[in-house]
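Appendix B, Record 12. Input sequence as logged:
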Amino acid sequence: MMAMNDSVNILNSAYLAVEYIDSFLPDNPLQQPFKNAWNYMLDNYTKFQIATWGSLIVHEVSYFLLCVPGFVFQFIPYMQKYKIQQDKPETWEKQWKCFKTLLFNHFFIQLPMICGTYYFTEYFNIPYEWEEMPRWYVLVAQCFGCAVIEDAWHYFLHRLLHHKRIYKYIHKVHHEFVSPFGMQAEYAHPLETLILGTGFFIGIVVFCNHVILLWAWVICRLMETIDVHSGYDVPLNPLHLVPFYAGARFHDFHHMNFIGNYASTFTWWDRIFGTDSQFIAYKEKEKKQQLIMKKKAN
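Logged structural output:
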């Protein structure tokens, strides 16, 4: 009980510290236009329309916009030095096949799930009003909490989907692409979409105190999964500032090797259970090869 009280006191102190720092920051010039747009939405659309069609639009627009950089990289010779599996370029055939499957999954699997968003917000009395919206730092903390929960769910269920008795029936679809690309992030068997997608909603149930979290968490999760499937390890990636972030090389190895690196976002579960051992050995081998190449060049 005493330890719990200490934890609560630490969190309260951290919250007050961030709130104090925030009071010195200049006003966000985008806040008023965003407020006006938000209130316009509330005045002109029903909660069902906002929760259902609004969520669908946020998902689709975010998904395909976030896929654009990786898609464009394949046409820029300079960016090829950042491609992880340089011997396996993207093909139009594979990308078209991926796109068609995505449309099916998005509108026939995910849309019915999205339709439940309105009933979720009504059942738990989740507010939509601008005045009830949490501050940006609370939203960031909530998204991080959602990511931690989803990552744990993803690790154990993803690892289970690799079991030899069920792998070929479900998860093998996602592994059709040995060298992944961003758009392939949600290319999966419908059952996998349901099984691994459940982890996305657990954090929402735990943390959601405003409908904005639904959309913020969608964008954060898509940003992460498209990045790790991008096939490119680009320097100065801001996501690398996130503590214990796995990144594209970590997940790219999973597609190349099929074994290990099961977590979606962070590295700690694979480190705890030793399922990153082959990845660590692979990196050490790469380093040795690079040293040999440098010595030969000199």
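The two ends are 63 Å apart (CA to CA).
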